[in-house]
Structure prediction request, 192 residues.
Amino acid sequence: MAFSKPQEVVAQFHLQSGLTVADFGTGSGAYALALARAVGAAGRVYAVDIQKEVLARLAREAKASDLEAKLPRGSLASRIEVIRGDLEQTQGSTLADQSVDFVVIANLLFQVSAKYNLVREAKRILKSNGQVAFIDWSGSFGGLGPKPEQVLLPAEAKKIFAEAGFVFLHEFPAGDQHYGLLFESDSQKPKS
Prediction:
């Protein structure tokens, strides 16, 4: 696998139809669209980002994908709900406690200063034993990825997730420039 390909990465999670998932820091929306396809017509994807323009573009792209695939009106687009939220803040996603089965955090954690707060927000919205797929850059790659000092190494990510009350399950392939880690929310509250 070369550069991170959301459709291929999401396929590894074996998400069942009807699940509710959240895409934290949705950005281009590539993961949100892949997740919406994976959870089927009965599923729901919350695409959360702080940037209004990004969210508006994702909503347009989802509608366009419906048209291109000749899907019934709103098939894909109706599965995605865009939410403007500040994930570094307590309850920043605006989602209810224990309302989501699965969270994707891709190419985001290296960018934020309140890393622990963001991971605790994922913990808060996840149902008991819900899972988080964490995907991030494995290096700087001459400026293609984050600055060298911003790269979040897997050991550091594992530590942040463990402190927030997650159990590490396994690594998964996420592209030549990325790594992927899968975590499960244990039933205990995160440390304060």
